[in-house]
Design goal:
Layout (H helix, E strand, L loop, with lengths): L1 E6 L4 E8 L4 E9 L4 H16 L8 E5 L5 H18 L2 E5 L1 H10 L6 E9 L2 E7 L5 E9 H8 L4 E4 L3 H6 L10 E3 L6 H10 L31
Parallel strand pairs: 1-4, 4-5, 6-9, 9-10
Antiparallel strand pairs: 1-2, 2-3, 6-7, 7-8
């Protein structure tokens, strides 16, 4: 199966093609950007498909990061993945952004938990805490930075994501520092592709994941994806 993965949730526009038969990522690209995801994503996906020597219609699974992230940005990849899946007769799945940020450190031999954090401003972060066995100790939540720091400092931890610096700034006095600090501004799109290939469409829907009330809301007369849950 060929998988097309897309990410526009945070500070990049990314696309990758994964061949599950060989386990190879055939092509991938990430372009850092804060704005302009909507204009860039489809051309970028076409370029990545061209590099892989395929058409988007050859893919049977389409993956998008579903949040938390930029309210406007994450919906760009979701809409694209759902539209392409419909056109190709494939399926669309969603991968939480915090899971994609955590995964590279869960795959290492270092037996530490992973606290993934995304800056939500106003002294808050979106965060999750995952054990090295991939069991969620703390599911994705919107929480004060100090609370996230307290969770992270309780045991050896990898602190990852674009909110890592904010969490480190609230680190409890006298607590051991993180074993690993990775301030990645956006997920590795190859990781998103592999997680998406393994996901069950029934339990990983391709729809926005909101952890708090959004700052901007779609018009009530023409919602893009229905009401936020």
């Amino acid at each position: 199966m060929l998988v097309l993965a897309l990410d526009t949730a945070l500070g990049a526009c990314s696309a990758a093609i994964l061949d599950t038969g060989s386990g190879r990522v055939l092509a991938r690209r990430s372009e850092p950007m804060e704005r302009g995801h909507a204009e860039r994503l489809v051309p970028l996906a076409a370029e990545v498909c061209g590099e892989a020597g395929i058409g988007a219609g050859d893919c049977r699974r389409f993956v998008a990061t579903v949040g938390p992230g930029s309210f406007t940005g994450l919906r760009v990849a979701i809409a694209a993945a759902r539209g392409m899946a419909l056109a190709a007769g494939g399926d669309a799945v969603g991968i939480p952004t915090l899971a994609a940020l955590s995964e590279p450190h869960l795959a290492t031999a270092e037996p530490v938990a992973v606290l993934a954090a995304i800056d939500a401003r106003h002294d808050h972060v979106y965060a999750s805490l995952t054990g090295h066995d991939r069991m969620l100790a703390v599911p994705p939540r919107y929480m004060p930075v100090a609370e996230a720091a307290g969770l992270a400092a309780a045991a050896p931890v990898a602190l990852v994501g674009p909110g890592a610096d904010a969490v480190l700034g609230a680190w409890p006095v006298g607590a051991s520092p993180p074993v690993i600090l990775d301030e990645a501004a956006y997920p590795d799109i190859a990781v998103v592709a592999r997680l998406g290939a393994a996901a069950d469409p029934a339990t990983s829907p391709c729809r926005p994941l909101y952890l708090k009330a959004v700052d901007a809301k779609p018009q009530a007369s023409a919602p893009l994806f229905g009401r936020a849950r």
